[in-house]
Amino acid sequence: MKRYLTVDDIGDLKQALAEAKQVKATPYAWDTLGKNKTIILIFFNSSLRTRLSTQKAAMNLGMNVIVLDVNKDGWKLETEFGVVMDGDKPEHLREAVPVIGQYCDIIAVRSFASFEDKVADYEEQILTQFIEHAGVPVISMESATRHPLQAFADLFTIEEYKKKDRPKVVLTWAPHPRALPQAVPNSFVEWMKEADVEFVVTHPKGYELAPEFSDGVKVEYDQCKAFEGADFIYAKNWASYSSYGEILSKDRAWTVDEEKMALTNEAKFMHCLPVRRNMVVSDAVIDSENSIVVQEAANRVVSAQVVIKRMLESLK
Ligand code: CP
After folding, report:
1. Per-residue model confidence as pLDDT tens digits over 247-258
2. Mutate to test the pocket of ligand 1, among 51, 143, 272 (most ligand atoms within 8 A of CB)
3. Which of ligand 1's atoms lies nearest the C-alpha of 45?
4. Ligand 1: which of 53, 111, 300 to mutate, most ligand atoms within 8 Å of CB?
5. What residues flank ligand 1, with Cβ below 6 Å?
6. HEC profile for the chain?
7. How far is the CA of 48 from the centre of ligand 1 (A)?
8. Lowest CB count within 10 Å: 117, 151, 248, 313, which one?
9. What is the tens place of the pLDDT at every residue in 274-300?
């Protein structure tokens, strides 16, 4: 595996899930695979789960891990091309990326959507620089458009908790005070389309995801109707794609609460975290026995370890 950016990079999902099960059961079975190999984790944006789980996954495989928080640790990086660099950014990404590639065997990078330029975000301008110039395999730890380590962990969690072969999974938009990227819902949709589930997305009008993700997906604008008979409720806020980056609604009638969960088939509640309590989900729901948000976060180590393990195996 040379890159991990989208669902296509993981290959056969059944095989990936079987490998995830094996990794979870015996996390230290490959603890010499990464001997004398280094992974650099580069963060343009904040993280708790991704940083810790990816680091833990690499350590389980015996790797050396270096973490670089671009906003705190290095020179401020210029990411635009053709600019006169007379401002406060002394280093260009174009040199920084191949240099970082000299110091490691795998690069993992987190770079969110800026919301300043829809085309630039959806062309993945920063991630593309790493793919083209790093000279080593690249893992997305959440890019402008996708969060594939999260989606893999989400699918694995659904696999662990499902009570029927083909569960009903509902992705619901929920209110939030800030404009959040579409990366998590985009990836979740991308993975659910490939998985053996009945999948429904519910959101207010104006929150339709980009066509490359939403095409072929059932959208139900009535949240209560969507929740009926659901086995999994996956809540997430995202900003509008059509009115790019805008908050069109903060309507707390969309908050996931006990009344709506009562419409489901005793659904498990999922969220990638961090989550705003009593905006996205009520205390009662996230604190209930059916909330599996912590177990879902725990599986981030598993998804990262499968991906890094495959990359190490392909380096041999
Ligand atoms: N879910 C997730 O990616 O969490 P962090 O932003 O804390 O890494």
Report:
1. 999 999 999 999
2. 272
3. 6
4. 300
5. 47-50, 142, 150, 272-274
6. CCEECCHHHHCCHHHHHHHHHHHHHCCCCCCCCCCCCEEEEEECCCCCHHHHHHHHHHHHCCCEEEEEECCCCCCCEECCCCCCCCCCCCEEHHHHHHHHHHCCCEEEEECCCCCCCHHHHHCCHHHHHHHHHCCCCEEECCCCCCCHHHHHHHHHHHHHHCCCCCCEEEEEECCCCCCCCCHHHHHHHHHHHHCCCEEEEECCCCCCCCHHHHCCCEECCCHHHHHCCCCEEEEECCCCCCCCCCCCCCCHHHCECHHHHCCCCCCEEECCCCCCECCCECHHHHCCCCECHHHHHHHHHHHHHHHHHHHHHHHC
7. 6
8. 313
9. 999 999 999 999 999 999 999 999 999
> Average per-residue pLDDT in the chain?
97
